[in-house]
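BUG-209 | component: ligand-complex export | severity: low

The export step for thymidine-5'-phosphate jobs runs without errors, but we want the raw record kept on the ticket for reference. Input record follows.
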Amino acid sequence: MKSNLFITFEGPEGAGKTTVIQKIAERLAEINIDVLATREPGGIEIAEKIRTIILNPAHTAMDERTEALLYAAARSQHYFEKVQPALDAGKLVICDRFIDSSLAYQGYARGIGIDEVLSINEFAIGKKLPDMTILFDIAPEVGLARIYATGNREVNRLDVESLPFHQKVHEGYLLLVERYPERIRIVNADQDIDSVVEDVWSLLLDAIQ
Ligand code: TMP
């Protein structure tokens, strides 16, 4: 069994990633896989502080380039302080969002350019990409409706962007699937959570076996 793999989870708001990741981490631990579950932006103190700056709904003046650079800064600190050491120690690392979020949100939806945002990230972390990325596919309006319906998480500065912005994020992700067909695997997130967990689980088992 391969263990030191870096697997990331991506998708629009309200896709259910966070809940599924928790359930998947529990299952991996049950079969004695040494797993680290973490998230971006955040995962360690410095990056969590950057997260509060980026996502504060009061920061409406934030320039899109500032936003892209802050995500890349949080990513660099998180990667070198937490992800890389865990991989070196033989752990399986599962991460809620990573570089593809920057490419879809800042690169495509904000209009900075996917290649431009990729180059900022290459400065931040080098050419590192996940071993596998699981994209939770769901129509943006369905995901946003879930956030507002459940009210079980804080609504952040990006959630309150317009529906066309979130539709662009979704389009951006689909462009990334074309660009990285080997790495990015799609899961239908518009089904009940247990079915999503099963779909993710079978992709993970294929990757680690
Ligand atoms: P979440 O952790 O609740 O998914 O919130 C993080 C928000 O930040 C979400 O709206 C996606 C956004 N984001 C980016 O725009 N670029 C990034 O690089 C990352 C990691 C997140």
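Assignee comment: Attached the raw record above. Residues 6-208 form a domain with the Rossmann fold fold (CATH 3.40.50.300).
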